[in-house]
Amino acid sequence: MQGTxxxxxKITDPKLGAILIAxxxxxxxxxxxxxxxxxxxxxxxxxxxxxPVTVRFAQPLPPPPNTDREExxxxxxxxxDIINQLHDLGR
Length: 91
Description:
With 91 residues, this protein is mostly helical.
Protein backbone atom coordinates (compact mmCIF):
# COMPACT_ATOMS: atom_id res chain seq x y z
CA MET A 1 0.00 0.00 0.00
CA GLN A 2 2.82 2.41 0.77
CA GLY A 3 4.94 2.15 -2.35
CA THR A 4 8.22 2.74 -0.51
CA UNK A 5 9.89 2.05 2.81
CA UNK A 6 9.40 4.39 5.75
CA UNK A 7 11.74 4.97 8.66
CA UNK A 8 9.33 3.54 11.25
CA UNK A 9 7.58 1.00 9.00
CA LYS A 10 4.17 2.70 9.19
CA ILE A 11 2.02 3.55 6.20
CA THR A 12 1.78 7.30 5.65
CA ASP A 13 0.67 7.68 2.04
CA PRO A 14 -1.46 4.72 0.92
CA LYS A 15 -1.64 3.94 -2.78
CA LEU A 16 -4.89 2.84 -4.44
CA GLY A 17 -3.57 -0.01 -6.62
CA ALA A 18 -4.45 -2.96 -4.37
CA ILE A 19 -7.85 -1.46 -3.54
CA LEU A 20 -8.60 -0.89 -7.23
CA ILE A 21 -7.69 -4.50 -8.06
CA ALA A 22 -9.99 -5.72 -5.25
CA UNK A 23 -12.81 -3.53 -6.62
CA UNK A 24 -12.41 -4.79 -10.18
CA UNK A 25 -12.12 -8.44 -9.10
CA UNK A 26 -14.79 -8.07 -6.39
CA UNK A 27 -12.63 -9.82 -3.80
CA UNK A 28 -12.16 -8.95 -0.11
CA UNK A 29 -9.20 -6.93 1.11
CA UNK A 30 -7.01 -8.62 3.75
CA UNK A 31 -5.12 -6.01 5.79
CA UNK A 32 -1.71 -7.40 6.76
CA UNK A 33 1.16 -5.95 8.75
CA UNK A 34 4.76 -7.12 8.43
CA UNK A 35 6.39 -5.67 11.54
CA UNK A 36 10.18 -5.40 11.53
CA UNK A 37 10.79 -5.29 7.79
CA UNK A 38 11.82 -1.63 8.02
CA UNK A 39 14.92 -2.83 9.93
CA UNK A 40 15.62 -5.62 7.43
CA UNK A 41 16.92 -3.29 4.73
CA UNK A 42 17.04 0.29 6.04
CA UNK A 43 17.25 3.13 3.54
CA UNK A 44 20.83 3.49 2.36
CA UNK A 45 21.79 -0.09 3.23
CA UNK A 46 23.29 -2.24 0.51
CA UNK A 47 22.74 -5.61 2.18
CA UNK A 48 19.85 -6.93 4.23
CA UNK A 49 20.54 -7.87 7.82
CA UNK A 50 19.00 -10.74 9.77
CA UNK A 51 15.94 -9.34 11.53
CA PRO A 52 12.95 -11.03 13.14
CA VAL A 53 9.69 -10.21 11.36
CA THR A 54 6.19 -10.48 12.83
CA VAL A 55 3.22 -10.98 10.46
CA ARG A 56 -0.30 -10.04 11.57
CA PHE A 57 -3.60 -10.14 9.69
CA ALA A 58 -6.81 -8.24 10.41
CA GLN A 59 -10.32 -9.30 9.50
CA PRO A 60 -11.01 -9.09 5.75
CA LEU A 61 -12.76 -5.99 4.48
CA PRO A 62 -15.59 -6.43 1.97
CA PRO A 63 -14.82 -5.76 -1.69
CA PRO A 64 -15.16 -2.12 -2.72
CA PRO A 65 -18.59 -1.61 -4.33
CA ASN A 66 -17.19 0.32 -7.31
CA THR A 67 -14.05 1.93 -8.73
CA ASP A 68 -15.00 5.49 -7.78
CA ARG A 69 -11.77 7.25 -6.72
CA GLU A 70 -13.32 8.84 -3.61
CA GLU A 71 -14.66 5.44 -2.48
CA UNK A 72 -11.29 3.77 -3.10
CA UNK A 73 -9.47 6.53 -1.22
CA UNK A 74 -11.76 6.15 1.80
CA UNK A 75 -11.19 2.39 1.86
CA UNK A 76 -7.41 2.83 1.44
CA UNK A 77 -7.33 5.24 4.39
CA UNK A 78 -9.37 2.84 6.53
CA UNK A 79 -7.05 -0.01 5.56
CA UNK A 80 -4.02 2.17 6.40
CA ASP A 81 -5.44 2.84 9.86
CA ILE A 82 -6.06 -0.88 10.47
CA ILE A 83 -2.55 -1.83 9.36
CA ASN A 84 -0.97 0.92 11.47
CA GLN A 85 -2.96 -0.33 14.50
CA LEU A 86 -1.53 -3.79 13.90
CA HIS A 87 1.93 -2.21 13.61
CA ASP A 88 1.47 -0.44 16.96
CA LEU A 89 1.16 -3.86 18.64
CA GLY A 90 4.88 -4.31 18.01
CA ARG A 91 6.58 -7.67 18.13
